[in-house]
């Protein structure tokens, strides 16, 4: 047993120092830990006797009868089946919730200052540091989304988490995430994202104070947006998505905690082995990560400001064509070259909800007040747009080619749903900026009824 533990530790250190990944989005992958060659069964999924005495287990991300181009599932070959655990009990209620009726509706423009990370003497891991800020819908009917903030400062030890309600799109803002999944290991750095799909067990290790954002979708899984007349290439290219390769640990451990998010609540079960014991796997239902620096930017090169949909990285479509349950949109570094154009984002009233976060830098439309680690929410049909400083500057600047957002990465979770803000989001966190509305109050009237077009 001591020799096995030593070998596992050595392999763990090796894998952490040089992680490798598969390339591609939505592919059929097959992987086996190199310590166990030929662990994948040949020619079938569920043989009478699996290699190495492993158990075969399928995880389904769609119904068995979903169309082939949408069907998501993977086969895992593991030391113990997932069913070996003691009964779940409900965890103490925290700031994670899907109770959208606990707080009165508020149509105002909202902006949050950076959310506070727990102090060093208050140890909080990823699963304990989930705080719901807004959302809509119901995981019980598999329809809706939730937006969470995670605030933590310590690693998950002998503990894993899985989400029965939907997929997590995770955006780290401060501190990188070392994530162990049933499929292998991922290192998710600042300016990268990852997606952990419904039901997949994972554990998050951190190196200190850590903060970030999560978009959770109940309906479906994230897809790449259609490119239409853009053509075959552009935006987030499939080859730049990375999926971990198989890695396992054969570790007996007393009272390993399994945290399940189920119907908007957290539950805890215990078992006496690590769940990261998958020696081999194959399928197309996998976790993955993406580096936002690889996004191929499309932009206007003559005049006008394109709609932000050109910056969509991933989308979760609804049943209504062209309308998303949720889009993940970024505002990356790029060149701005438009002629006779107001270049920043235009003033807008939208039939969609717009939740924005800032990973680093200064967002072009509001360089003051919108800070890294903070957020904003502009609800359905609530007016929003550039503040006074941005408007006056962009209206009078010489229109030369300019680099925009260099050193900055802002993003948006956009949804067709009307999002309710939680009690934690509006009151308990104490980060809501009550002065946000003032950034527009000094906009001046420029109307001149005597204006006439210039003659040439």
Automatic annotation (TrEMBL):
GO terms for cellular component: cytoplasm. Pathway: Amino-acid degradation; L-phenylalanine degradation; acetoacetate and fumarate from L-phenylalanine: step 4/6. The active site is at 305 (proton acceptor). It is an enzyme of class 1 (oxidoreductase). It catalyses: homogentisate + O2 = 4-maleylacetoacetate + H(+). Its cofactor is Fe cation. It comes from the Eukaryota. GO terms for molecular function: homogentisate 1,2-dioxygenase activity; metal ion binding. Belongs to the homogentisate dioxygenase family. This is Homogentisate 1,2-dioxygenase.
